[in-house]
Amino acid sequence: MIVISLISSLSSTVYNILPTGILHCIFSMFLVDGAYRNAWIQEFLGTMLMIGLTFSPGKWIGVDSTPLEWVCHALGVIFADYFAGGPHVNPAVSVAMFCLGKCSYTECYIRSMGSIAGGLISFPLFLQLSSMLSWKELGGPEYTLIDENDDASSGFLNEFMSVFLLLIAIFVLNFEVDFGTYHYWLKQTYTAIAIRYLIVVFGLTGPAMNPMLGTTWLLFKVKSGYISGMDHYFIYWSAPFLAALSASFCYVVYAGGKFMGCNVPFGPVKPVAKPSEKME
What we know:
Blueprint: H1 2-17, H2 22-27, H3 37-54, H4 66-84, H5 91-99, H6 105-133, H7 153-176, H8 183-201, H9 211-222, H10 230-255, E1 258-259, E2 262-263
Antiparallel strand pairs: 1-2
């Protein structure tokens, strides 16, 4: 009985200390005999770097200078991607890549879990850092219903459009253009500019443009272990995933290929390069 009591006490202590869902995220790293362990680690580290380097401009850096804030945010996007090895850091991006056949369903799931784990750790970690150094606390994306008549449709549309346009920008910059010698640095810079622009234009819901950010921030904020109200899932999960499906389908119609492993009934709109004639 003493052993059982100790185990129960330990379990309760661990449950109260650890962020909600973190163990589930960690255990997913070992699925398929750990085949995607490195991808999980990339997502975990990339998410922590992304939150630290892109949420701090305007709060810790560039507080009184909008140009400096934008530059620091852009550098944060570039450095987070570069040092973490090019992670998705966004379940909506992972879903889009699955739709385009760029990753398997299992990899999509494990990458999403790694990203969520990074978010669950980052917000409390950076709160402690800001408290120690007397810096302004980092915030996160959220949407509050105006009244009982608010059906969250405006929040849904805001997240849908911001994620849809973000993914279109990602597809164009990664699959359609070639900047030559400095391709990586230029396409990451333009990606950062697109992200910052969308943040300004679609400010109603944060915007998150990322299901992981909306949920891990709210779990940290409420500190209750669960999220009440379906409006959060409607805005921060349904909208981004539908945007990922829509953007991926539109890109397949334009560029060709398969959508979730299936041929589409029309397209491609993009001209297909004709093979050069053989020399006689």
